[in-house]
Amino acid sequence: MKKFPVYLMAILCLTVIHCYGQVGPGSGSAYCSQGHIRMNDLKIHAGDMPSDYDVSYLRFDLNIDPGQDYISGSVFTRFKVTGDLSDGLQMELSVDLTVDSVKYQGNLIPFTHSGEFTLSLQIPGFPDIGSVQDVEVFYRGVPVSGAGFGSIGREEHEGIPAMWTLSEPYGCRDWWPGKNDLTDKADSVDIIVHSPELYRTASNGVLVSDEVVDGIRTCHWKHRYPVVPYLIAIAVTNYEVYSDIAYPGGIPVEILNYVYPEDKADIMPRTRQTVPVMELFSSMFTPYPFMQEKYGHAQFGWGGGMEHQTMSFMGRFDFEIIAHELAHQWFGDMVTLNSWKDIWLNEGFATYLAGMSYEHLFDGYYWPFWKSQNISYVTSEPDGSVYVDDTTKVSRIFSGRLSYSKGALLLHMLRWVCGDEAFFTACRNYLEDPRLKYGFAGTSDLKAHLETAAGIDLTEFFNDWYYGQGYPSYNIICNQVATGDYETEIRQTQSHASVSFFEMPVPVMFSGSGKDTTIVFQHTFNAQKFRIYTEFEIESVKFDPEQWLIAGPSVDTLFRKTEVVKLYPNPSRDFIRVTTGGAQPEDIKLFDCTGREVRTDISMNGPVARIDVSGLSAGCYLIRLRTASESKVVKFVRQ
């Protein structure tokens, strides 16, 4: 899902390129606070439905007039018995809706509908475990917009009413009766909606029929891929319909667009943005997951977008939102998180893939902006983990800073730590894993694939960056110890006490004499020192030039050049010139080989000192020079 945070509203309005709609980093992971969306604490059921049955098939048969708040109809559920149903088959449906009757295997059965949303169906007898049964719930009423992102939405555009659903994370129960569970996918779904002739219904899968009889239009959508309840959706208004075609892997895929008639001319060039992005994602990861059906967009009156399976609902059509919602078809729809604690597997991936669209399209122009913007957002506060420790708060689950931006940058750093080849191999293996494909996954599944592909242990990384809070700030200190010989010290501070130290490969770019080189330091403890050798004299130092790391904005990159002392001539009979290459020495003294100070004539001229050695005995001597920053001792020979 895409949201629009206030923090991005005033930044970086960038130029439209070619036929692309509004382009500019930030539009994809942002959200607007809207009055009809209650992003408050959700102290309710968080996806722990009884697991005594598995849903295999759903059929919706609904009567909807978007000009009326009232809906009616039925939902048919076919399921496999996996446990004891003697206490009833448990479903969820808001008590704002009225259940008229329930049929089990075609016969009426008793039920109770109580609390806020508990619907218990009294199944007769004792169905055998493994047997396939079916129930159909007939209901009606006025759906009330629920907590989270609204569940049911309504608006008028150009005087025409529109109605849509948006069920993530727990809103299914606000408009249909079923098993509102995160880890149970129906194998297939039929969605049949009857509405006045003026209106069309957009939904999941393929439109198999659109018929008008006696002024009533019936749209029948059929979806034949596994789908989790919160990704089932309908939207109804006087849509106009058109298609774009993408060719991922050379295979045509329809991009079906349902838009408000008054906005069609403006939106058409924007939806074409989907074509190169779908082809890009298919080449980087795996082919589009729902190739046998379609992908599409349905316009709705919300500030962002929602990745309903095979048809994203779109409140706006900026490039990054289109890319983000499309990315969810892989990460979130085909492979779905198995706990809201791991929402980053959906939102972090979608945010990062939208960022990588900037890396590979538009000649990479927006890619640095995207990285710097997300780093700044994540580091705008000192705390917060990617791991969601309280899934009863919708505002915490869908934190733009943590679940979206920090989740995306967590993937970016994993790519840095593992290397491109291992990272993309792991992502493809994760998507194609038969245990996960069209099913569910957790963070441990992705971690295992990354470790296998890269051949490294990522436990410490995940402890710091996934479970831990905050981020490091770095101070780079580079000292010259001899010509071409430098000592680099890396100091780190942490923004939050939950992490004592972030072990990371730290890239630093050294520049000078028109040349540069980037060296990656394996930083394993604070104030760690490294000796480096360059073919040029270093004039400047830049921390993380390609922006791989989450690091605080107070990064202090310091370059301190040690004065290089030169003697000429050495050995000498008469005098020696001493040059420091920098500031004038504050003090110069001579000592013999026993350490006794020797008096002689010394004259200064800026960084050059002239020392009279004509009166000294032959032998070895030491010269000690002190500047404002350090002390140096050099040896010379009196012939």
Descriptive overview:
By secondary structure, the chain is α+β, with helices and mostly antiparallel strands. Among the domains are: 472-560, Sandwich (Immunoglobulin-like), CATH 2.60.40; 566-638, Sandwich (Immunoglobulin-like). 18% of the residues lie in helices and 35% in strands. The chain is built from ten helices and 37 strands. The strands form nine sheets. Strands 5-4-8-2-1-11-14-13 form an eight-stranded mixed sheet, with no helix packed on it. Residues 3-21 and 31-47 have low confidence and may be disordered.
Question: What key phrases describe this protein's structure?
Answer:
single chain, 639 residues, Immunoglobulin-like, 10 helices, alpha+beta, 18% helix, eight-stranded mixed beta sheet, five-stranded mixed beta sheet, elongated
What order do the helices and strands come in, and which of them pair?
Elements: E1 53-64, E2 71-81, E3 89-92, E4 97-104, E5 107-108, E6 111-114, E7 118-121, E8 132-141, E9 151-157, E10 160-166, E11 188-196, E12 200-203, E13 206-213, E14 216-223, E15 234-237, E16 240-246, E17 253-259, H1 264-271, H2 274-284, E18 295-299, E19 305-306, E20 312-314, H3 319-327, E21 336-337, H4 344-360, H5 367-378, H6 394-397, H7 400-418, H8 420-432, E22 440-441, H9 443-454, H10 459-467, E23 472-482, E24 485-494, E25 504-512, E26 515-523, E27 528-533, E28 540-543, E29 556-560, E30 566-568, E31 575-579, E32 587-592, E33 597-598, E34 602-605, E35 608-612, E36 619-626, E37 631-638
